[in-house]
Design brief:
Mss4-like_sf, peptide-methionine (R)-S-oxide reductase activity, 3 helices, three-stranded antiparallel β-sheet, Metal Binding Protein, Guanine Nucleotide Exchange Factor, Chain A, globular, alpha+beta
Length: 153
């Protein structure tokens, strides 16, 4: 189980090694993603709160990166954080996420990216529920929900 100290250590020193890497040009990403997905994943945009696909969705399944289809989160770790975006307590694996300090918009936060393709996912905060206290606040545009039988949603 990851804790806030682990997140800060990864952001400051070194992120976990990804299981694989996916690298594409901006033109290749633009051809594969919708304009909204491209803005979030590749340009670090944020989608509007509460008006996104997975904010109020709690169906079972897994959440994969929409860019490279790497497993990022499991629905068992999703919870209602009232933040306006899907929130999770833990990533699916320690190596699923890459962490970076983000001081944009006059805030100090930790940005989370897909560790395989580098796509922007959102941010992680130390105000989540016990036992780890983490809240991964993630843009729906960066995710695709997959049911256990492999069906996309």
């Amino acid at each position: 189980m990851l804790r806030w100290l682990d997140v800060l250590t990864f952001a400051k020193y070194s992120n976990p090694e990804p299981p694989r890497r996916v690298e594409k040009t901006a033109a290749e990403w633009a051809a594969e993603l919708t304009p909204a997905q491209f803005r979030v994943l590749r340009e670090q945009a944020t989608e509007p709160p509460y008006r996104n696909a997975y904010c109020r969705s709690y169906e079972p399944g897994r959440y994969e990166c929409v860019g490279c289809r790497s497993l990022l989160f499991d629905s068992a770790t999703k919870y209602h954080a009232i933040s306006g975006w899907p929130s999770f307590t833990q990533p699916a694996a320690k190596s699923a996420i890459r962490y970076h300090f983000d001081d944009s918009h006059n805030m100090q936060r930790v940005e989370v990216r897909c560790n395989v393709c580098g796509g922007h996912l959102g941010h992680v905060f130390p105000d989540g529920p016990a036992p780890a206290g983490l809240r991964y606040c993630i843009n729906s545009e960066s995710l695709v929900r997959v049911e256990e039988n492999g069906i996309l949603f």
